[in-house]
Amino acid sequence: MNFIADMHTHTIASTHAYCTIMENARAAAENGLAYLGMTDHCIKMQDSPNEWHFCNLVTIPRFLSGVRVIRGVEADIMDYEGTLDTTADIERSVEWINVSYHYPCCVPGTREENTMGYLGALKNPKVCVLAHTDSPDYDYDEDRVTKACAQNNVLIELNCSRLGRKGSEDRLRNYILPACVKNNCRIIVDSDAHFCDKIGSFEKAAQLLRDINFPLEMVVNADISRFEEFLKSRNILTNSDLK
Description:
By secondary structure, the chain is α/β, with parallel strands linked by helices. It contains eight helices and eight strands.
């Protein structure tokens, strides 16, 4: 698989990450990526940047080291209604929103509560991806959520950093990815890199997808034309933006 984008990465603005956007962009270029998502944690995480960080992303050049930088955020689900910790100003300032559960922001609920949180988050039209949904702590109804993602043009993430965590790969292999195929819900493979050497390191994810014969055409960032069509469908990219 020839991956061309990594849309879940962190910089030193999230203080449990350790590289700058310049270092991340260089790593992306060295790994042959065309697109890089800058998606630091949103404002309710304990070590997240200030709201101003996101509102000032416009100062970052569109291209760094020849890689197109997509200005984004990893937003937190705050409750079982799907409320996010974004503000109107943040949502106006970013192009891309990954959405995820984190324990400091929303403790794990029942399967139904977690499901309703995801479904509620999908009502926000700026949401692009449900990120690292594989955590056994946040069990959910994969069928309902992947069906809703497909209906709302939202991707499910295969998060490379989670593949070594207990229970995560089993949930992806046996439940989440089969539900994506069943409901025609497309996926994106991301690193969730907190250090630049992890950006674009997708070998384990690619092997998992091969193992289960996951349809390549459903992996949005495994083809540049497919990825750019997705960006256009979300009004993130126009023909005039292309280099």
